[in-house]
Design a protein that fits this description.
The protein has 5 helices and 4 strands, in the order E-H-E-H-E-H-E-H-H. By secondary structure, it is an alpha/beta fold. The protein has a 4-stranded parallel sheet, covered by helices on one side. The model has no long low-confidence stretch (mean pLDDT about 85). InterPro entries: AB_hydrolase_fold.
Length: about 120
């Protein structure tokens, strides 16, 4: 059975490296959530990428998500419940407060572009 590890905002797939080393399974994937985004990223785009990648899985997936990755895991499970064997959700909310998102967006607009380059964003 395949295990999928989904990172959070401000992270990359490499942030799961130490976790992957501790797992006994070699069938683990850590997709880069922002790698296919050319300009402005959006939640629906990221979720769509995950759906294209995993909705045709031959066997149910074990999905672990951190923060944004956990929200994506929840949405994927809602849409493709037959493709999910288990979920591990870390540091997530079932509903994101709009005030928090507005504040986060304000902070992101004030940050220099260089801060986003390590995530593969421009």
């Amino acid at each position: 059975m395949k295990t999928i590890l989904l990172h959070g905002l401000g992270q990359t797939a490499q942030d799961w490296k130490k976790v992957v080393c501790q797992l006994s399974s070699s069938n683990v994937e850590c997709p880069e959530l922002f790698s296919s985004m050319e300009n402005e990223i959006s939640y629906p785009q990221i979720l769509g990428d995950l759906e294209r990648r995993y909705s045709n899985a031959k066997e149910p997936l074990r999905i672990c998500g951190l923060s944004l990755g956990a929200l994506l895991a929840i949405d994927f499970a809602i849409r493709h419940g037959d493709k999910v064997a288990s979920l591990v959700l870390i540091g997530t909310q079932y509903k994101v407060p709009s005030l928090l998102i507005d504040f986060q967006n304000l902070i992101f607009r004030c940050m220099p572009n260089k801060a986003f380059e390590s995530m593969g964003l421009s």
